[in-house]
From TrEMBL:
PANTHER family: F-BOX_KELCH-REPEAT PROTEIN SKIP11 (PTHR46122:SF2), GALACTOSE OXIDASE/KELCH REPEAT PROTEIN-RELATED (PTHR46122)
Keyword Transcription regulation: no
Species of provenance: Lithospermum erythrorhizon
SMART domains: Kelch
UniProt xrefs under Pfam families: Kelch_1
Protein's recorded name: Oxidase
One GO cellular component term: nucleus
Bias (Basic and acidic residues) ranges: 30-44
Keywords: Kelch repeat, Repeat
Record-annotated membrane-spanning stretches: none
Record region (Disordered): 28-83
InterPro entries reported for this sequence: F-box/Kelch-repeat (IPR052439), Kelch-typ_b-propeller (IPR015915), Kelch_1 (IPR006652)
Entry superkingdom: Eukaryota
Length: 439
């Protein structure tokens, strides 16, 4: 393809229209037309991809290529004629293994253009091999997936500050207006809802850039707590189709597409939140039973010992205004919590405060303020998420159907909360669902 010349990966200006790309198994997104700096960013990205590809070869301490076909990191011997004349070599001049070494260091924003080169590149992207290798070598990019319209999902890349659109979902009308939960795990975005009397899951695949349905949990539910760690996710609690509050937990493996029942929690709970911290799964807060009793305790699940342990007073304190008003607990959003660098943070929407959990003393302390324009309705419509080494808050002011969505970012390792606005766009709605995919 490139002959015997030295080569590198260079991003090109391929069409970004979803309609034109439907027959390809690639990850091109429709860039938001409101992005006034798109052309400038495109030129910068072209330069970035070229530099990354060149550096990936220069920075290799061992010139011997890695065996990547079976995701092994063991060095292998390479012959002079290895892959010669074979399209599977990707870049002929440097061989398949060095080609993949370059590609895993490229931004996944460029994978859509890369799939346009030939069938081998398309198959490589679609197989998920690149994403497995990125995870193995610690190359991770975090994108924010959120929905402000019932069937529409948008994507925000906080590094390149680019807005994109996913294909529109096509469920029935019952699902459209049902309560939904969302979860990003591996290279998938899962959206949980209800169709007539049964629970249903819609799955967006980053590999095929399409939605599908038909997946089922062992214990279908809604209003659960969930979190992901790499290719696995755990869901706990919630309520079934008859409204019974559950204590059951399940593990989902996105590589195999399988669900496994885990030991049940000590207490049934719904409208709870969940995070991974120190490679353990925590469930925080929630409501117990048909009579709405607010739970202040949390529970931690140890994946090695497969046991649950209750932790008292782990849930952030319920707002004073809500307690004084006597508002039912179900009117408030589940605890807004997120973990960065194995530290747990919470957003207090009533006091507009950021709190941090002291794991040793098991207490919450206020460390700063939320962004001033992060509006919500009892916590609903406000997204508070971990995104790599930063915390993000997605929300914004609105009046009479007019408003904005802002993506605010703070890096905890850099000091007390100082929020930077990464992106802003018009929106007449709150944020209904939000998830962060790191791959």
């Amino acid at each position: 393809m490139l002959g015997d010349r030295a080569c590198c990966v260079v991003s090109r200006d391929y069409p970004m229209s979803l309609e034109q790309e439907n027959n390809r198994t690639c990850t091109n997104y429709e860039v938001d037309k409101n992005d006034g700096h798109a052309e400038k960013r495109k030129r910068e990205e072209d330069e970035d991809v070229e530099v990354i590809a060149k550096k990936s070869l220069k920075q290799s301490d061992d010139p011997t290529p890695l065996a990547v076909g079976n995701t092994s990191a063991a060095p292998v011997e390479a012959s002079d004629d290895q892959h010669a004349g074979d399209s599977s070599s990707l870049f002929l001049a440097i061989g398949r293994d060095n080609s993949i070494s370059c590609l895993i260091r490229c931004s996944r924003s460029d994978y859509g253009a890369i799939t346009s080169l030939n069938q081998s590149f398309r198959e490589l992207i679609r197989s998920g091999e690149l994403y497995r290798l990125r995870r193995q070598y610690g190359v991770v990019e975090h994108w924010v997936y959120f929905s402000c319209q019932l069937l529409e999902w948008e994507v925000f890349d906080p590094t390149r500050r680019r807005w994109m659109h996913l294909p529109t979902m096509n469920p029935n009308e019952c699902f459209q207006f049902s309560d939904k939960e969302s979860l990003a795990v591996g290279t998938e975005l899962l959206v949980f809802g209800k169709e007539v009397i049964s629970n249903v899951i819609y799955r967006y695949s980053l590999l095929t850039h399409s939605w599908s349905s038909g997946m089922r949990m062992n214990a279908p539910r809604c209003l659960f707590g969930s979190a992901s760690l790499g290719e696995i996710a755990i869901l706990a609690g919630g309520c079934d189709s008859q409204g019974n509050t559950l204590s059951v937990a399940e593990l989902y493996n996105s590589e195999t597409g399988t669900w496994s029942i885990l030991p049940s929690m000590n207490k049934p709970r719904k409208m709870c939140s969940a995070v991974f911290m120190d490679r353990k799964f925590y469930v925080i807060g929630g409501i117990e039973g048909s009579e709405p009793k607010v739970l202040t305790c949390g529970e931690v699940y140890d994946l090695e010992t497969q046991t649950w342990t209750e932790i008292p007073s782990m849930s952030p304190v319920r707002s004073v205004a809500a307690r004084e008003a006597g508002a039912p607990p179900t009117t408030e959003a589940p605890p807004l919590v997120a973990v960065v660098n194995n530290e747990l943070y919470a957003a207090d929407y009533a006091d507009m405060a950021v709190r941090k959990y002291d794991k040793l003393n098991r207490v919450w302390t206020t460390i700063g303020r939320l962004p001033e324009r992060a509006a919500s309705m009892n916590g609903w419509g406000l997204a508070f998420r971990a995104c790599g080494n930063r915390l993000i808050v997605i929300g914004g002011p609105r009046t009479m159907g007019e408003g904005f969505i802002e993506v605010n970012s703070w890096v905890p390792s850099e000091g007390p909360p100082q929020w930077d606005v990464l992106g802003r766009k018009r929106s007449g709605n709150f944020v209904y669902n939000c998830a962060v995919m790191g791959c």
